[in-house]
Amino acid sequence: MSEKTREYKVDYLARVEGEGALYIKVRGGEVVDVKFRIFEPPRLFEAILIGRMYHEIPDITARICGICPIAYQMSSVHAIEQIFGVSVGGPLRELRRLVYCGEWIESHFLHAFLLHLPDFLGYDDAIQMAKDHPEQVKTALRVKKIGNDIVALLGGREVHPINVRVGGFYKVPTKDRLYHLKNDLKQGKQLTIQLLEWVSKLDFPEFELDYEFVSLKHPREYPQNEGLIVSNRGLEISADEFEEYFIEEQVQHSNALHTYIKGRGSYMVGPLARINLNRDMLYDGVREMLQQVGFPQPCINPFMSIIARVAETLYAFEESLRIVDEYVEPERPAVEYEVKGGRGCACTEAPRGILYHRYDLSPDGKVVSAKIIPPTAQNQKRIEDDLRIMAPSIIKLPRQKAVWRFEQAVRNYDPCISCATHFLRFELDEE
Amino acid sequence: MTRVYHVRPTSSDLNSMRNSGRVKIRVFCVGNPQRGDDGVGHIVADLLTGEENIVLDKVRTPAEILDKLTGEEECVIVVDAMEKATTPGKVHRLTSIENLSTKTPWRSTHSLTLPEVLKIAESLSLIPKNLLVYGVEGASFEYMAPVSEDVMRACYVVAEEIRRLARQIL
After folding, report:
1. Which residues neighbour A185 within 8 Å (Cβ) at sequence distance 6 or greater?
2. What whole-number distance in Å separates Cα of residue A293 and Cα of residue A412?
């Protein structure tokens, strides 16, 4: 290493979901290399699916992630229902939103309060932080548990739920059973309001960038299961067109494919993108809270994504309460359908951003091909771009603090590396 | 400072447990029954089903313990399998959270280890004075493998010890 060359290495990134590393090389004050390396082995789920029956897809893909299995189930059932020409409406659609709310609550609070918050408060991990801030951590765990309970009630169990199926659910709750959630939901809402106020007062590093934010947009609701894919730079497409606009590329240093918008480059998905593009669809109370705590509109500071996560959790509680109040038990747990062959594509909003699924089925319902593009794969290039842009100012900090800040910048995206590792081809170019 | 918990409740602890209206003994049975000897916790739970004074929780990952602990328990027991062991079926009785191995650093919630879960719980004052962790050395953790004989015998030993403790409180 020459005198003027500095390397910042984090061999094993902490407090992210999965196994990744970070490498930044600076020469003479200029950043010459940035690598967000994902070395967790490829999962090969798309290959595993080939030859399996359509009805197995939701449960197999749910195994991709222990934190956001509902997202995988939702994107898969929507893609398959598109092939079968089925539309799921009424109470079944509402229950799908409710179980998704449960997942947002548990996933957002897990990341915000156990993985991301230690960065802002100066702790190495949640164990240290819990000693000094036990009330906040206890409250966050209480809120997270309510999310788990929703998923357990509708999904059959907290981790890797098994009750979601093409056309609806295997079993639906009675009105009475769902109503039992209400007190917990009210309590969760109140606790989330307190924590939203608290996280808004954290000290956020000054960094703003003109991002291209991408999320779903629905004309009548905050997006979860349906909507067009839009961006703040004029993108407006359906999920069927996803692969015409978004390109996946293999990079040597990562076991996850990088995604970018054709002709434009990296983009951001996730809570910050969703809130910036759908603030008008939040409940009045959530919008007012955001205004009250001084959350900018749009917010272009990625470090403030922790506020977006907590605000979306508040939305999820409001939405859950509405669904519980209005719920009418459906006559059947799932709509009927006829198995057909063809191609189906769907995008839903996983906690970390849009999750794209595309399937080709044979006429008897067997998977011929599958493509899954998780949010972390989409954010990966954006994370590297952030690090590249932030690096010149971060490297002026003492080394330990600089490494800390680089890691914090990665955690802004709540990367789920386990979800992202799925590339299939590897080409070696030797001379 | 290492905080050592009681291996078995003292007689005054037993009296206080008898008289309190709180959960007497909460047993977290950790593991995946589809992974051979990793099913230890769930087998012990099955052996203890119906026992008075015991609240059983079958969990697949240690992280779930954090969701379930209330801080209102008189005694918490955790039963889990131990990997990379040398004597399958050997029962370890651990009473110090500090001394639990944390060779695997905090990485993610996908792999939050039992020691880390217990350390967070301790920081949150969710661990009662009486804590006992049973670690049973396993031989095979292969998918759908049967539980090995030595490990099955160990399950009966662990269940009997917990049962005896519960009956002392009656």
Report:
1. A146, A317, A320, A321, A324
2. 19
Burial tier of A428 (Cβ tally within 10 Å: 0-12, 13-18, 19+) = exposed
What six digits make up the tokens of A380?
């990966």
For residue B169, give both structure tokens. 């409180």
d(CA A411, CA A17): 10
Specify whether the CB–CB gap between B28 and B134 falls below 8 A: no
* Integer Cα distance of A106 and A152 in angstroms: 11
Tokens of B53: 């004074």
Q: Does residue A148 belong to the interface with chain B, where contact is any CB pair within 8 Å?
A: yes
Do residues A390 and A364 lie in contact, with contact meaning Cβ atoms separated by under 8 Å? Answer: no
CA dihedral A140, A141, A142, A146 (to 10 degrees): 100
Model confidence pLDDT, tens digit, residues B116-162: 889 889 999 999 888 988 988 888 888 888 999 999 999 999 999 99
Q: Evaluate whether A309 touches A111 at the Cβ level (below 8 Å).
A: yes
The rounded Cα B116 to chain-centroid distance in angstroms is 14
CB-based contact, B60 to chain A, within 8 Å: yes
Q: Which residues in A401-414 are b (16+ Cβ under 10 Å) and which e?
A: ebbbbbbbbbbbbb
Q: How far is CA A291 from the centre of its chain?
A: 24
Write out the two tokens for A109: 């609070």
Q: How many CB pairs under 8 A join A and B?
A: 55
Answer yes or no: do B109 and A148 touch at CB < 8 A. no
Sign, CA torsion B4/B6/B10/B13:
positive
Contacts of A349 (CB under 8 A, 6+ apart): A71, A100, A215, A216, A223, A224, A225, A274, A355
Structure tokens that stand for A94 in this block: 């509402």
User: Which of B64, B105, B120 is closest, CB to CB, to A14?
Assistant: B105
With a cut of 60, say whether residue B6 has pLDDT above it: no
Query: Is A217 within 8 Å of A277 (Cβ atoms)?
Result: yes
Does this model's pTM top 0.90? My answer is no
Q: Which residue of B has its CA nearest to A14?
A: B107
| CA proximity to A376, closest of A353, A356, A357 | A353
Instruction: Please report the DSSP string for B99-136 in residue order.
Output: TS---SPP--GGG--HHHHHHHHHHTT-S-SEEEEEEE
Query: Distance (Å, rounded) from C-alpha B158 to C-alpha B65?
Result: 19
Give me the domains of chain A, ranges plus CATH numbers: 45-423 (1.10.645.10)
Q: In angstroms, how far is CA A86 from the centroid of its own chain?
A: 26
Give residue-wise pLDDT tens across range B8-20: 667 777 777 677 7
